[in-house]
Amino acid sequence: MYEVTTMPPIRRGVLAVAAVALLFGIAACSGEGPRELTVTEFGFPWSEKPSPRTVFRTRTDGDLLRFAFEVDDDDVVVSDAWDGESTVDGEDRVEIFFARDADLADYWCIEIDPLGRVHDYHARHYRVFDADWDCPGLKAEGSSTPTGYAVRGSIPLATLAELMGRPIGRGSELRVGLFRAEFRGEGPEARGEADDNWISWARPAVEKPDFHVPEAFRTIVVP
């Protein structure tokens, strides 16, 4: 099971900005700053519109892989009610997927809403989902910011090693997908069916929005 800390929805504040800065931007006492990977090249793969700002950061911290998303969003869509993990499917959210191989024979999906609530599942290509899987040791937290929301979390490196079938640590390669659902207003045309509902780091060469294809993933080196 994952641990989640939630914040009141749509309340603007500075907590998330300060926490992300603390997690990723302050040098260690030894004088060596933390190594980190920062991704800013997000966009709408299926729309010509400019996408709102999305920033992803990750780094190792002892036996953990820490990560954070910072999102600009002037219309945060989040449910007050919680009817189980599928609630996240109708909300704004950020997503991080981990694939064992380039063909997506096995991959694992973690989707986190602006309150830090999680929908996680195991999958196989093409779109064979196991909703019973929970990411062991996952911690997630969400909060509002002056320009949108921030999500941060951590996953034990031991969990990633078990999923990948090999040791994972600083310098290891990981095949990941980094995504965002950007919903607005009411109705299906604004909550999943519009081309500008879906933001990605990679640009999948498929006709319709779909993150469950090999082209949606890219390889990173764990910092």
Summarize the structure.
About 10% of the residues lie in helices and about 35% in strands.
Describe this structure in words.
This protein is mostly beta strands and 223 residues long. Helix content is 8%, strand content 35%. It is built from two helices and 13 strands. The chain has helices spanning 15-24, 157-164; strands at 3-5, 37-39, 54-61, 64-72, 93-99, 107-112, 118-124, 128-130, 139-145, 148-156, 173-181, 198-200, 218-221. Strands 5, 6, 7, 8, 11, 12 and 13 form a seven-stranded antiparallel sheet that branches. The protein has a six-stranded mixed sheet with strand order 1-9-10-4-3-2. Strand 5 and strand 6 form a beta hairpin. The protein starts with a strand and ends with a strand. Residues 5-34 have low confidence and may be disordered.
List the SSEs and their pairings:
Blueprint: E1 3-5, H1 15-24, E2 37-39, E3 54-61, E4 64-72, E5 93-99, E6 107-112, E7 118-124, E8 128-130, E9 139-145, E10 148-156, H2 157-164, E11 173-181, E12 198-200, E13 218-221
Parallel strand pairs: 1-9
Antiparallel strand pairs: 2-3, 3-4, 4-10, 5-6, 5-11, 6-7, 7-8, 9-10, 11-12, 11-13
Notable features of this structure?
seven-stranded antiparallel sheet; single chain; mainly beta; 223 residues; 13 strands; six-stranded mixed sheet; 2 helices
Overall SS class: mainly beta
Discrete helix count: 2
The rounded Rg comes to 17 Å
Strand residue content: 25-35%
Uncertain residue segments: 5-34
Main sheet makeup: 7 strands, antiparallel
Number of strands: 13
Tell me roughly what share of residues is in helical segments.
under 10%
| Cα distance spanning the termini | 26 Å
Overall geometry: globular
**What is the N-to-C order of secondary-structure elements (H for helix, E for strand)?**
EHEEEEEEEEEHEEE
Overall mean pLDDT: 87
